[in-house]
Amino acid sequence: MTWPRGRMRAAVVAAPGRVELAELPIPEPLPGHALVRVDHVGVCGTDLELLHGTAAYVRDGRVRFPHVFGHEWSGTVVAAEGDPDGPAPGDRVVGQTMLACRSCANCQRGRRNLCLRLREVGLYGQQGAAAEYIRMPVDSLATLPPEVTSLDATLVEPAVTVVAALGTAGVGVGDRVAVVGTGTIGLLAVQLAARSGGHVHAVGVDPAGLELAAALGAETTYQPGAAPPDAYDVVVEASGAAAGFATALRLAATGGRVAAVGVPTEPVTGFDAGDLVLRGVTVYGIRHGLDHYGTTIRLLAEGALEAKPLIHAVLPLERAAEAFHLLEHGRNGAPKIILSLREGA
Ligand SMILES: [Zn+2]
Ligand SMILES: [Zn+2]
């Protein structure tokens, strides 16, 4: 199939605080790249930070406006200029968010997730997927099996980080696990920790979110103040709030492991380093799950991870501004808002 030329619909952050529709050129062919027609694109807290200008890459000038957001997406390959063994036209795919340079010191040591010259799709250095088409390096695409719908596949991107978090912290059979936060990351972590044989307790401030966590495998749920301290082998911090991080440390048992996935934008007040040392608590900062796309897609295909219960609303691309508003103000329980580029959506 030939690489289409011309213009395409897109949704952009036109300036901090403003989401608009735009018409942009379809990305040009580039060796080693594929052009993908986007089916669905999720919006998340990271996109809200872009919109509000609070993200580190907005503050340090790496983001230029108008900015095409969208890093949680699925689509269908329409043309590819590269690896004949890679994704072919017609293949349904998701794309990796982190595009590693492959040549810096960390990439050379096989630690692409710690690349020193990273670009992140839809965040900085690479146009995002809130558009009819996205151009991606062919080796940054992962093919979807028929069991995984394009809608559910938008959850692959957040889920790879959860797979990395639980793998790094090491959830074993019978482990007591607390998940702090009932957003997308938290609810995926509850599911995966329960399937890994852990006794999972969910901790959060949103009653509807806690109810959903219980339906997805949490044995008990708590408001943060009510959860038992010094009680959990593994704690997953998925709230992204500074207070959530403090809660996670408090809940970890002596010798426990904390996987910090949420990114607080403020320092943690009352952080007691001495307590951390004396109780031998290990904290892992989980940057991303770049190497877990294959595993995550398989978990979705097998039904070990469920995407559907997390989806709050699916809106057409034209309603992008409303999607951001809904993400910020209008939802309880199911956290995920998805934009659809499919006709008639
Ligand atoms: Zn995201
Ligand atoms: Zn690198």
TrEMBL record:
EC number(s) from the headed UniProt entry: 1.1.1.329
Keywords: Metal-binding, Oxidoreductase, Zinc
Reactions that this protein is recorded to catalyse: 2-deoxy-scyllo-inosamine + NADP(+) = 3-amino-2,3-dideoxy-scyllo-inosose + NADPH + H(+); 2-deoxy-scyllo-inosamine + NAD(+) = 3-amino-2,3-dideoxy-scyllo-inosose + NADH + H(+)
GO MF terms, alphabetically ordered: metal ion binding; oxidoreductase activity
Keyword Oxidoreductase: yes
Superkingdom field: Bacteria
Domain Enoyl reductase (ER) intervals: 14-339
Needed co-factor(s): Zn(2+)
Membrane spanning residue stretches: none
Pathway info: Metabolic intermediate biosynthesis; 2-deoxystreptamine biosynthesis; 2-deoxystreptamine from D-glucose 6-phosphate: step 3/4
InterPro entries in alphabetical order: ADH-like_C, ADH-like_N, ER, GroES-like_sf, NAD(P)-bd_dom_sf, Zn_alcohol_dh
Family: Belongs to the zinc-containing alcohol dehydrogenase family. DOIA dehydrogenase subfamily.
Function: Catalyzes the oxidation of 2-deoxy-scyllo-inosamine (DOIA) with NAD(+) or NADP(+), forming 3-amino-2,3-dideoxy-scyllo-inosose (amino-DOI).
Protein's UniProt name: 2-deoxy-scyllo-inosamine dehydrogenase
Lineage, top ranks: Bacteria, Bacillati, Actinomycetota, Actinomycetes, Kitasatosporales
